[in-house]
Amino acid sequence: HLPTGGRVFISVRKEDRPAAVGVARDLAAHGFDIVATRGTAASLQEAGVACSVVNKVIEGRPHIVDMIKNDDIDLIVNTTSGSRQALADSFSIRREALHHKVAYFTTIAGARATCQALKHLAEEADVNRLQDLHEGLNA
Predict the structure, then answer these.
(1) How far is 1 from 9, CA to CA, in rounded Å?
(2) Which domains are present in the chain?
(3) Is the backbone of residue 12 left (phi > 0), alpha (psi -120 to 50) or beta?
(4) C-alpha angle 110/112/115, rounded to 5°?
(5) Bond prior to 62 in cis (omega within 30° of 0)
(6) Are the C-beta atoms of residues 40 and 20 closer than 8 Å to each other?
(7) Residue-wise pLDDT tens for the chain (139 aa)?
(8) Which ranges constitute the DSSP H helices of 1-139?
(9) The sheet that has 75-78: what strands, in order across it?
């Protein structure tokens, strides 16, 4: 299930931070409040995107896994570097996200696709009766 609002957690590796700014702007425009780890938050705030800072697991409680357990997170965008600690943190985040049925994206491309989906969900869809379509074919 794709949430249409709430709180999104964003934590991305350094090389993804410029692209994450656009994703964060789109999500904020859809009404999401943003929380991010320190490095990601600094990049977002520098670009003018409002966000709150949350601890990484290794930085102590309260941390992002606690927020997921407390159902305070509705969507996650998390890309990781190859470091052992980053992978361990990412695993614990993914495990709790799965347990709490939180939508989770591990690539910037996936996050961008989510933003596009949210944009289309916000638009009103036209509903056509089959009978009307059939009449149009016979006219």
Answers:
(1) 16
(2) 6-138 (3.40.50.1380)
(3) beta
(4) 115
(5) yes
(6) yes
(7) 889 899 999 999 999 999 999 999 999 999 999 999 999 999 999 999 999 999 998 899 999 999 999 999 999 999 988 778 878 888 999 999 999 999 999 999 999 999 999 988 877 667 778 888 878 787 6
(8) 17-29, 38-46, 64-69, 84-99, 108-122, 130-138
(9) 52-53, 32-36, 6-11, 75-78, 103-105
Tokens 């949210």 found at: 118
- The enclosing H or E element of 100 equals none
- How much is the pTM? 0.85
Q: What angle do CA 96, 107, 19 make, to 5 degrees?
A: 125
